[in-house]
Automatic annotation (TrEMBL):
Histone deacetylase domain: residues covered: 18-290
Gene3D superfamilies (UniProt xref): Histone deacetylase domain
Organism of derivation: Salinimicrobium profundisediminis
UniProt name for this protein: Histone deacetylase
GO molecular function, one term: hydrolase activity
InterPro entries: HDAC_classIV, HDACs, His_deacetylse_dom, His_deacetylse_dom_sf, Ureohydrolase_dom_sf
Family: Belongs to the histone deacetylase family.
UniProt keyword list: Hydrolase
GO biological process entries: epigenetic regulation of gene expression
Length: 300
C-alpha cells in the first residue's frame, strides 16, 4: 500500500498576501481522496522526531535558535517565512514524515510526503522557505539504522539543492544529483556531486532527453540501495519562480520515468514534493497529484 505522510499542520496559515502556497498541502490530499486515487488508509500522521536524528545533520546551535526563536533578523529573513513556534513544529513534523516514509519505502518500494523537499536548508542555516533538510535527515537516519549504505538523491526541483549539496559535500556515501534552472535561485550555487544546469524555457523534449540519458547511468555507476526523489513541480512553464518551459504532460512523464526506473530496478524510493508556485493553485495541485497517481499506477 502507498503510504503518504500528511499532518494538518502542513497547511499552517500564513499572513495574507504571502507568496508561499500553503493551501496546496490541504488541497492535494483532498483531490486524491475525491478522485479515488487514495483513501484515508494511505495517509499517516508523522509524530515528533527524535532530536538526535535532526542533530545528525543540523548544527545544535542552529536548531536551538529555531526552537527558541532567537535567530538574527538576517537569518530569519533568509528563510523567508514568518517564524513562529508553530512553524518550527511544522518543520520537525515534516522531517519526521520523511523519515517514516523512508522506512515505509523499504517495505512497499515507495512512500511519499505531501510536503518536504526542503533542500535549501544547510547544516547550520535555513533559507528559501526551508529550515530542516528533510531528505538529508532521513538519509542519515537510514544509514544510522543500517537500512541503507549508498544513497542517491535525485533533485528535480527547478532550484538547485544547495543545502543538500553542502551537507553531503564530503560524504561519498550519499550522491547528490540536482537538475535545475541555470539562471534561477540560488544565485550562488553549491557544488553537488552532479549538477545539470538548464537554460531558460527548456521544454519537455530536451528536459526528458537529458534526464533519460543521465539517471540510468548514475544508478549504474553509483549502485544505490535507496533513492530520495524531490519532485518539485516548479519546472512548469506556468510557474512564476521557475523560468523553464515544461508542460503538465512533461512533468507527469518526468515523474513516471523516475518512479518506473526505481520500480524496475527494485530500489526503494522516498518522494518529497518540493516547490510549485504557479499563479493558479489548480495547476500546482494537478501537477503534484500526478506524482501520486503515477506512484499508484506503477507500484500498486
Amino acid at each position: 500500500m502507498l503510504k503518504i505522510a500528511f499532518h494538518p499542520i502542513y497547511f499552517l496559515p500564513l499572513p495574507k498576501g504571502h507568496r508561499f502556497p500553503m493551501e496546496k498541502y490541504e488541497l492535494v490530499p483532498q483531490q486524491l481522496l475525491h478522485e479515488g486515487t487514495c483513501t484515508q488508509e494511505n495517509f499517516f500522521e508523522p509524530v515528533f522526531p527524535n532530536e538526535s536524528d535532526i542533530l545528525a545533520v543540523h548544527d545544535k546551535n542552529y536548531v536551538e535558535a529555531l526552537k527558541n526563536q532567537t535567530l538574527s533578523y538576517r537569518e530569519a529573513r533568509s528563510i523567508g517565512l514568518p517564524l513562529s513556534k508553530k512553524l518550527v513544529e511544522r518543520e520537525f513534523l515534516i522531517t519526521s514524515g520523511t523519515i517514516k516514509a523512508a522506512e515505509y519505502a523499504l517495505q512497499h518500494g515507495i512512500a511519499m510526503n505531501i510536503a518536504g523537499g526542503t533542500h535549501h536548508a544547510y547544516s547550520n542555516q535555513g533559507e528559501g522557505f526551508c529550515m530542516f533538510n528533510d531528505q538529508a535527515v532521513a538519509a542519515k537516519w537510514l544509514q544510522k539504522e543500517n537500512l541503507a549504505k549508498k544513497i542517491l538523491i535525485v533533485d528535480l526541483d527547478v532550484h538547485q539543492g544547495n543545502g543538500t549539496a553542502e551537507i553531503f559535500q564530503n560524504d561519498p556515501s550519499v550522491f547528490t544529483f540536482s537538475m535545475h534552472g541555470k539562471n534561477n535561485y540560488p544565485f550562488k550555487k553549491e557544488k553537488s556531486d552532479l549538477d545539470i544546469e538548464l537554460e531558460n524555457n527548456t521544454g519537455d523534449e530536451e528536459y526528458l532527453k537529458i534526464l533519460k540519458e543521465t539517471l540510468p547511468r548514475l544508478i549504474e555507476e553509483q549502485t544505490p540501495d535507496f533513492i530520495f526523489y524531490l519532485s518539485g513541480v516548479d519546472i512548469l512553464a506556468t510557474d512564476k519562480l521557475g523560468k523553464l518551459g515544461c508542460t503538465q504532460a512533461g512533468c507527469k512523464k518526468r515523474d513516471r520515468f523516475v518512479l518506473q526506473t526505481c520500480h524496475d530496478l527494485r530500489i526503494p524510493v522516498e518522494v518529497s514534493m518540493g516547490g510549485g508556485y504557479s499563479p493558479h493553485i489548480k495547476n500546482i495541485v494537478e501537477a503534484h497529484a500526478n506524482t501520486f497517481r503515477q506512484a499508484q499506477e506503477i507500484y500498486f
